[in-house]
């Protein structure tokens, strides 16, 4: 598969993912004003569903949509450093594009810097847990007997992690950066981004360790040579 195809898939997939996160948040806040719990439910269902659809559609090309996952793929040796770098650039660019489009779809300025501060040890721990779990789900499913189930596993996990993590599970540096340019339900203030991204990287590293422990790669031993007669 050519690098430009992989990068295009990551850009398109991340753009649609972020557009869904932000757009569903805006729609939910307008349709269910004053009911934050219902707003979160609406956004989590939309995000989980779009992840299933996007991964099913783009997995044959590239469907990480997440710099943490891409970096870990490089660590595991499944992609090259050059490929990983371009995919991360595409993910960040796609995320920003998706945020701008979501703002415009709801008649908001294309870019509005978020004022929603998200900071504190509880939220950072939530991001560590969210990203750790995501990595285990992604790579655990891919190393299982049927890797075609990864779309459903990831979509289901993210929908659930919206609720069981204190941070509502950003679990993605590209999505985190993109959410700084919308001052809406899903936004995050730029000053809060470094703490979130560091927590996500830590969660990714811990997740990689968990995957190595739970799903070690089994090397097939070469057939034994017969002794000469």
UniProtKB/TrEMBL annotation:
Domain of life where this protein originates: Bacteria
Native source organism of the sequence: Terrabacter terrigena
Pfam families: MIP
Transmembrane annotation, as ranges: 49-72, 84-102, 122-142, 154-175, 195-217
Topology of the protein relative to the lipid bilayer: Multi-pass membrane protein
Family of this protein: Belongs to the MIP/aquaporin (TC 1.A.8) family.
Family matches, as SUPFAM superfamilies: Aquaporin-like
Keywords, sorted A to Z: Membrane, Transmembrane, Transmembrane helix, Transport
Protein known as: Aquaporin
UniProt cross-references to InterPro entries, sorted A to Z: Aquaporin-like, Aquaporin_transptr, MIP
Organismal lineage: Bacteria, Bacillati, Actinomycetota, Actinomycetes, Micrococcales
Chief place of localization: membrane
Subcellular localization: Membrane
